[in-house]
Amino acid sequence: MEQKIIVRIANSGDAHYAQTITDEMEASAKARGTGIAKRSPDYVAMKMNEGKAVIALLEDGTWVGFCYIEAWGHDEFVANSGLIVAPEFRKSGVAKQIKQTIFNLSRVKYPQAKIFGLTTGLAVMKINSDLGYEPVTYSELTDDEEFWAGCKSCVNYDILMSKNRKNCMCTAMLYDPADHYEPEETSNDFKKNSKLYERFMKIKQSKLLRLFRKREGNGGNGGKPRSLFHHFFHI
After folding, report:
1. What is the pTM of this model?
2. Residue 10 in contact with residue 55, Cβ under 8 Å?
């Protein structure tokens, strides 16, 4: 009989999974050839102790997946970071469950905060779009130096700094509780433009960033762009 996957808020009793989680984060990044901001097992365990993490497990205790919350800029911004799923459970839909649960937890703990993320993966971008995230420029993210310092362990850090933190291999996405599209709109936009998003992300990851220049301040209408896809390329 197939075991049920349980997705719940992590607690101090889950700390023994921390080493497994951080090992899988590192292995997954190496397999993709991309970089992540590394976190130690102690840091992951701290997030569990604080009730700022979500874990997925089988009924027998087998670890399935994980994600945690980080707050920046005096709690003005929140990131749902470190999403990872064990290889044997990928493409099972559990990543979406984890993201939904950590998103809901973030809204409860930080109701006024803007929730943002950086991703190199189209699958995560789709999940974020289903939650109501929009592609944004890096300038709309937190300017908290501690957050950006966390990127130092990423293999793409030199690229980030060469772009004056205005661009990198990751795509930035944001949910602003005070000003946002509805999840149905962001989800439909992603479906409509997914092939173009994929093409653009491949170009970025091929380090052809010179083909796309940030054009902040050229919109002129003071409001949201005509489409989310327009905003995605407005970098």
Report:
1. 0.78
2. yes
Site of tokens 């994980």? 66
State how far the Cα of 137 lies from the Cα of 65, in Å rounded to an integer.
Answer: 29
pLDDT in tens, 161-214: 888 888 887 889 999 999 887 888 888 888 887 887 777 777 666 653 453 334
Residue owning tokens 């950086």 = 118
Q: Is 160 helix (H, G, I), strand (E, B) or coil?
A: helix
Beta strands in 2-113 (DSSP E): 5-9, 53-58, 63-72, 77-85
Q: List pLDDT tens digits, range 46-65.
A: 999 999 999 999 999 999 99
Q: Could you tell me the CA-to-CA distances from 61 to 57, 66, 153, 198 in Å, in that order? A: 6, 13, 31, 36
- pLDDT reported for residue 218: 45
- Using a 10 angstrom Cβ sphere, with 0-12 exposed, 13-18 middle and 19 or more buried, the burial of residue 102 is buried
Q: What is the pLDDT of residue 29?
A: 75
* Sheet hosting strand 134-136, strand order edge to edge: 5-9, 53-58, 63-72, 77-85, 114-119, 171-175, 134-136
Alpha carbons 231 and 226: distance in angstroms, whole number? 8
pLDDT of residue 143: 92
Is 65 within 8 Å of 86 (Cβ atoms)? yes
**Region label for 184, one of left (φ > 0), alpha (ψ between -120 and 50) or beta (otherwise):** alpha
Nearest to 180 by CA among 234, 224, 226: 224
Quick check: 43 and 81 in contact, CB under 8 A? no
Structural domain boundaries of the chain? 113-235
